[in-house]
Amino acid sequence: MKHRSILKLIAMLALLTFSGAQAAEKVSVSFFSWPGYGFWFIAKEKGLAPDLELDLQIIEDPYESFGQLAAGKLDVTSSTVEYGPIAADSGVPVKLVTYTNLSYGTDRLIMSEDIKEASDLKGKTVAVLEGGLTQIFMGIWLEDNGVKFDEVEYANLIMDDAVAAMVSGKVAGGEFWEPFGTVVLDSLKGTHVVATSIEPYWLKTGLLADGMYMSDKFMENPELAAKTMKAYWDAVAWWKENPEEGNKIIAEGLSFELADVESVIGTTGEPNEGGLAVLDVGAAKKFMGVEEGEPPFDLKNGQITEVWDLTTEWWKKFEMVTGDPKFEDGVDTTVISAQ
Q1: Which of 2, 32, 222, 281 has its Cα between 20 and 30 A from that of 210?
Q2: Element (H, E) at 66
Q3: Is residue 17 part of a domain?
Q4: Angstrom distance (rounded) from CA 194 to CA 117
């Protein structure tokens, strides 16, 4: 009798253990190799969301991530903030849900030695990610300096390939973020910076930044969506208090040198000149217009709407957008409002 009771107890304990293990909800998150997205590794490593099973995937092509989001193979992706109008115009069921980082000098336009002024680029090729912020950054700079955006050729290259193209002379210039920009400047004599995202002109646009996207399907479970975003913000808060350990976790997760991580996000938890200003949840809520107060760097409350208009204007020029996509079809603020 006692033997049977023990067996029954063991079976109950096994069932409870199994049920507990099953309780963690799987959330698939992607991002490309970039320290500004590495806070997801901290969330997982430090168990900041014990009831979530974070499946972290490095996908170097952002458009592959957006495609997988739309197909239901991913739930969340961290990327730059320009995709919303393209998604809305194409009817892709993906939304930008929050800003996460502001470029604070990490993005630079770098030209080869023989490019003395913008007009020298006419008819030449520059390296960008087509359909990405790098292309808009380049286009605005060209037109601000008297060159029409379509008077140059654009080579669609990820960072590793862009560096190689620059060093080999296949492109005359390009948009590079850290640590790749420093590689170009150190490797090729005469290369020089003509614009950087830390300049007040660029900072005030709020254009050059990172954000978080979620699929419409994933957001059908608002509690899970909010829980997932909270894991990210908790990781950022933890990193701001523990930047040394946090940077090591990010470096290991990305297979980056620690120095390369530090060059982007810094070592203090504060905005890193020449790298990123990592936003906290309060700053993000203000920029997205769901909390009163002004964001940092002279940005405006709710400035996301101005970024939407500027991005849409440029995607029309580049023929990435053909209609007039509505803000609410590409941006959803319900999840950040719940934080």
Answers
A1: 222
A2: helix 62-70
A3: no
A4: 9
